[in-house]
Amino acid sequence: MPTVRVLPAGDVLDVEAGESLMAAARRQGWRWPTICGGNGECGTCWMVVEQGAEHGSAVEAAERATLAKGMKADEPRARLACQIKVSGPMVVTRRSVKAPTREGITA
Amino acid sequence: MQDLEVLVAVTEESRDQAQLGKARRPPAPATLIDPQRYTSPEFARLEFERLWSRTWQLACLDSDIPNPGDFSEYVIGDWSILVLRAADGSLRAFHNVCAHRGRRIKTGCGTSDALQCPYHLWTWDLDGNLTHVPERQTFCEFADADAALQPVLVDQWQHWIFVNLDRNAEPLMDYLGELPEILAPYRFDRQYKWSSRSTRVKGNWKAMVDAFNEAYHARGIHPESLTFINYTDYDVRLLGDHSMMVIPFGMPDVESVPTVPDYQEMMDAMEWSFAAFGEDTALVDFLRMCHLEPGQELRELMVPLMRGGMAQSNIDVDALDDSQLVDDWHFYFFPNVVINNFSFGYWLFRFLPDACDPNYSTVDMWYFHRVPDTLETLPPPEPHVVIPQGETCGAVMDQDLGNVPIQQAGLRSPAVPGLRLSSLEARIVHMHDVLDRYLTGD
Fold it and tell me: Cα separation of B98 and B119, whole Å?
């Protein structure tokens, strides 16, 4: 099962085949910023892929359009956690992500 | 196409919402707004006939025409009004049409000691008196007065110059109502226009007004700023024909942001949003060096930093309370001007209907800054720039300007049941009520 390390906290998330990174985060009780609820509309779940970008699913038109409207439009490594599917190890940065073991958040 | 009487009918319930003061927001209307108000050529024609022909409209700034002979053209639909500074320094406004063959006498802005039509060189003085007709003896005899320029009502509040095509209109200050008193502490007389842009938009002028008169759309259109602006818990006040809302800055929109945002990401969002309007982001640089204690709101850090920063810049903001200092006090001047008003300046948006097509409008974007109190003469306004339709107007504006054309397209569908509005959108309901008063002739 691929794992994704989320910086700067450094927590590691297990991602199952076929599920989006955000779906994996939710399943494991993480908090990942979103407003639209994971529909690729709001762009709030953006993250920057530091390593392993080749293990991410291709950027489709809707994701590209949402990223282009938001504050990460000029960051070529930005992806939406609700759209990306992961097939191998990856390292991403997103400060506002909270894993359940930190700060006692539970699912 | 429904009957126009039906189109303009808005219920008593929504009229009652104009009674202010009992709630922080007027209640939501029980009725729907007819989408054809945004799309119908007949409705647009009625607006020109009964609204634009008799409401006060912001035409230009006094700093656009500081000296005798300076003129500025204001175009609304098929009307062109020439606003100018007469020899004695007072304001004049005339219908900008030649009494000979109807050509617009001047276009745009400039300076001239006489108003001369370029077609056959008929000439008027700055008071609108006919002074020269080439080969006049070849015309049947006519009185100079019959070929004088037709005056238009003109008046000034702060640095804004208004015109009204209705010679019997109420005085400007009556029309403005409470707005001058509420806005007095912001010292518009100490603000200069540092950027002036316009672009054409596929969207009815009211769809554009609506996009600025509620903050409910932020979660869909401006999600990044939800980390530092509370777009849900805001007050709405109706002020005669006009309205305002106070949008709290320096706190997340807890209704739509599920987690407490990371502080540095909040700063990133704040910096990006203000930079998108060309604003200085020095405040964010200072805020980045601070941190929030548990339970502390960002605005608690912003108040002392902004007071200190303004004092250091020799800008006296003692007349502003903490909310006026930090928050976005947003005002709507019926029918077509909105301002996002801040302690450091304001952003003005003016929406002009297309003369022929209700699906299009032009938005003017004027940005102002307070200047240091020690600066005696304000800098001259920056020249106007026309941005081609679809090109960038700044990232946050682009979010709105990209959205409205798609709404306008949707509004044209017969399947739209009507616009269902919330109390967060009470200013839109109120705008339609006021518009109806004009259209029905009350």
Answer: 9
pTM: 0.91
With an 8 Å Cβ cutoff, is B256 touching chain A?
yes
Domain that holds residue A41: 3-93
For helices B205-212 and B395-411, the axis angle rounded to 10 degrees is 130
B191-202: strand order across its sheet: B235-239, B242-247, B328-333, B337-341, B345-353, B360-370, B191-202, B384-387
Cβ atoms of residues B341 and B183 within 8 Å? yes
User: Residue B173 domain-assigned?
Assistant: no
Strands B384-387 and B191-202: parallel
Identify whether the C-beta of residue B335 lies closer than 8 Å to the C-beta of residue B353: no
CATH number of the structural domain spanning residue A63: 3.10.20.30
The Cα–Cα gap between A55 and B188 comes to 55
Question: Mind telling me how many Å the CA of B305 is from chain A's nearest CA?
Answer: 25
**Interface pTM, i.e. ipTM:** 0.82
| Domain total of chain A | 1
> What is residue B3's DSSP assignment?
-
Q: In which residue ranges of chain B is pLDDT below 70?
A: 1-23, 258, 442
Put simply, whether B361 touches A (Cβ < 8 Å) is: no
Structural domain boundaries enclosing B152? 57-168
